[in-house]
Amino acid sequence: MTPRIHGLAKRALEHLQAGTTDQADDILQLPVAMYTDPQRYQREVQRIFRELPIAAALSLELPEAGSWKAMNLMDFPLLLVRGEDQIVRAFLNVCRHRGAQVCAEGRGKSRVFACPYHAWVYDQKGQLTGRYAAETFGEVDASQYGLTSLTCAEKSGVVFVILTPHRTFDIHRWLGEFADEIGTLDLTHWHLFEQRDLPGPGWKVTMDGYLEAYHHNIVHGRTVGQFTIGNLLVLDTWGPHQRLTFGRKSLPELAAQPEGEWQPDTHVRLIHSCFPNLSISGILGDHCLVSQIFPGKTPDTTITRQTVLSAKAPQTEDELAATRTFSAMTLQAVRDEDYAIGFSIQNAILSGANEHFLIGRNEPAVQNYHRWVAYFARSNAGAEW
Ligand code: FES
Ligand SMILES: [Fe+2]
After folding, report:
1. What is the mean pLDDT of residues 245-261?
2. Which one of 242, 327, 362, 384 is CB 3.0 to 4.6 Å from 308, fit for a cystine?
3. Cα 77 to the center of its chain, rounded Å
């Protein structure tokens, strides 16, 4: 038992007994244009998703020297490689000869990367180390034609990248003490069970659902709502990053036990929300759902990368069945419940029914999120971080 979880369980129990929840000072009126205006959308995606560090991958996806992952993030072809020195580097996965994507999407292990078009070869540091038939091509200064690198930092089991070349960041400044908070999850030691991409409604409609417990009993009665208490939130913030603590249905049991005997981690559920698009959700003790939400080309679409982790690789049939059940339940909860509602919002958002949405006092994390979006959308606010 950690004092941290003990304190969170105590706060959650107090809310449960009083019928209360953490609250914002006021209801927030959010103009619907914040969700729909295409110019605003382009500016926000640029300032927030391309000019701030975003969680591109988990460290455990790049387990050893030579491990690589190639993926498309919001139309940026990205290649992550762990070098022999154990450092993870990020590159645009684009050949410097004539722009072919060097590596097919996926994960693997390799010492070098050969372009599939004319076989120019790059090493784990992105340096151009070979050119097919170089003597016929003509002279090229290899030092000027390595893969375009992106600023990258690995912290607390997460690989952060800025998608704009030449833009830098200080990961300690960006995460602050939230890095230690994510560190408590010990993410590098989990087992990657499954990963999938889900199409979803617009970015803000999607994110809102990750940041409140108000809808849980209503939307998730047959899935994750079986395990958590609806509309009870304990909220802590570190700048734009937030930790949401929900009570599990067993929370009332604590009231009957002496505090010294509490096993509080079985009675609460934590969600770590790292601005702007990462949510790490420990729904049941030995399983975890990591969600990365990426805006689509237009304000009405997203792709969510769902990664299902188990505390260790399932060994027995029972363990395998338990992990499969967890994975299926999270898929159902998000795709068939959250995103079904999200699409219904999205499909009616231009109807003119609402000029603004109301974000309740019981939805403080949603309020915080939108305030930080507005802050970073301001000219160059991200450079201050
Ligand atoms: S485009 Fe890569 S070698 Fe020609
Ligand atoms: Fe939900």
Report:
1. 95
2. 327
3. 18
Ligand 1 pocket test, candidate residues 91, 102, 113, 115, most atoms within 8 A of CB: 115
Specify the residue with its C-alpha closest to ligand 1, atom 3.
118
Query: Which ligand 1 atom is at minimum distance from the Cα of 100?
Result: 1
Which tens digits make up the pLDDT trace of 256-302?
999 999 999 999 999 999 999 999 998 657 999 999 999 999 999 99
Which residue has tokens 């609460």? 268
The pair of structure tokens assigned to 200 is: 């979803």
Q: Which atom of ligand 1 is nearest to the CA of 132?
A: 3
Q: Which of 257, 323, 231, 252 is nearest to 284 (CA)?
A: 323
Instruction: Please report the domains of the chain, with CATH numbers, ordered by start residue.
Output: 3-52+188-384 (3.90.380.10), 54-168 (2.102.10.10)
Tokens encoding 330: 């999270």
Ligand index nearest the alpha carbon of residue 145? 1
Of all ligands present, the nearest one to the C-alpha of 335 is 2
Long-range contacts of residues 110-116, Cβ cutoff 8 Å, at least 24 apart = 110/66, 110/68, 111/66, 113/68, 113/79, 113/81
Q: Given the structure tokens 């990367």, which residue do they identify?
A: 113
Model pTM? Answer: 0.96
Q: Whose CA is nearest to atom 1 of ligand 1?
A: 98
- Chain length of the chain: 385
Strand 302-310 and strand 67-73: pairing? Answer: unpaired
Q: Specify the DSSP class assigned to residue 382.
A: G
DSSP 378: S
Q: How many CB atoms lie within 10 A of CB 385?
A: 15
